[in-house]
């Protein structure tokens, strides 16, 4: 099949490399507002360069991957659907939930599949965790702990436009909690602090946060995030039930140092970047998209899924700013 990529920055170029290695993909069509980015990707991974999204949609592509800036996501998703071309779009659907809901309404009933990029759903550990939970191996759940710790904060320009740590970082935890447990979040309480980069505080954001989520069956989920984890990129989940407990991410590249006498775990070089931690998951995610394009599977992460994680992020943002519990229904109806 022939796949188009809109946006050839860091993640777009990474997707181009991944797609170029998939057996299902015969050719790529690339475009970026910065022509040199598209040309560079074409030289490295192969593909035809066109000068606009319109030219890409007219180039006979079977599916499109949207890796452009967030502000461009709504228009590009709609353009793909209007052209009848299956769309893979990196999260988020849009910068705000209002825009995201508008996109959902605009594409509803079109019959064109859309997959949103939440790569943890394709990580082997999280896949195994979901199977264990849904298979009843843990019994009734009581506690979930989910962690995302970045090795260093992104630049000031990114922070200023990101929508805040809950929307650009924690949202991955929110999505994977929903997916692994099969439950919905009903209420949140969030706290945060700033003890690192001044520009994060100046942007009205926090660099380290904690959120307590109540799920619809009474299970408690604790989410921990930080922009400052000098040892590396740390993504983990613990799931505790009345029958058993399991963990995702307890492997030798875990960026955590044990000080227990005689303990050598973890013994490997710590993960230092999200692309390192989730290389296999990204490949599985885009393989799934080729199956969506081929019509052999339905979207494994819909716009509706992405919006649910977004409501949780909005609730946590409001909770942080107002120092109170916030229900999901409150932000959904605002």
Brief summary:
The chain is of the alpha/beta class. The protein has helices at 10-20, 35-45, 53-57, 73-82, 97-107, 124-134, 156-161, 165-181, 198-202, 274-277, 279-294, 303-322, 328-333; strands at residues 2-6, 27-31, 48-49, 63-66, 87-90, 114-117, 141-149, 185-193, 208-215, 220-226, 234-241, 245-248, 326-327.
Task: Write structural notes for this entry.
The chain has helices at residues 10-20, 35-45, 53-57, 73-82, 97-107, 124-134, 156-161, 165-181, 198-202, 274-277, 279-294, 303-322, 328-333; strands at residues 2-6, 27-31, 48-49, 63-66, 87-90, 114-117, 141-149, 185-193, 208-215, 220-226, 234-241, 245-248, 326-327. It contains 13 helices and 13 strands. With 334 residues, it is α/β, with parallel strands linked by helices. It has a seven-stranded mixed sheet. The longest helix has 20 residues, at 303-322. 40% of the residues lie in helices and 21% in strands. Helix 4 links the parallel strand 4 (63-66) and strand 5. The chain is globular and about 55 Å long. Pfam families: GFO_IDH_MocA, GFO_IDH_MocA_C3. Residues 1-118 form the Gfo/Idh/MocA-like oxidoreductase N-terminal domain. This is Gfo/Idh/MocA family oxidoreductase.
